[in-house]
Each structure stands twice: as C-alpha cells, then as structure tokens.
Amino acid sequence: MMVSELKAFLIWSSIINYGVLFLWFGVFVFAHDWVYRMHTRWFKLSVESFDALNYGGVTVYKIGVVLFNLVPLIALSIIF
C-alpha cells in the first residue's frame, strides 16, 4: 500500500468515525429519554449512571479515533 493510499484511508476513516461520534452525540442529546427508556428495559440504571456511561463511552471512542486515526495521519504527513 502506498503512502498516499494510506493517508486517504486514514482521512476517510477519521471522517466516518467522527460521523459516528456526532450521530451518537445527537441521539444522546435529542433522544435522551427514549434511549434511556429503551436501555432500562434491559438494565437497572439511574439517569445519572446512564449519562456517565454514555459520556465515558463517547470519551473512549474519541480517544480511540484520535489515537488510531489522527495521530498516524499526522505522523505520515510530517514524514512524507
């Protein structure tokens, strides 16, 4: 795989992953009550713990995107 192909892959991967992140955030903000009711059918969760779990999930996902997509892209851009 050529460096230009790898850069293009990392750029598109970052765009798709940030799209998923924005979708998750949008659903969490605009459909919070519906998602909470759906999850409390399966798990006993308070609203505070549900919010904390979602916030933690978004944080871990965002760190993963930065670590596995953006950092290698920046490194390749600096080197080549």
From TrEMBL:
Record protein name field: DUF6868 domain-containing protein
Domain named DUF6868: residues: 1-79
Organism: Aquipseudomonas campi
Pfam family, one: DUF6868
Transmembrane segments: 9-32, 52-79
Keyword annotations: Membrane, Transmembrane, Transmembrane helix
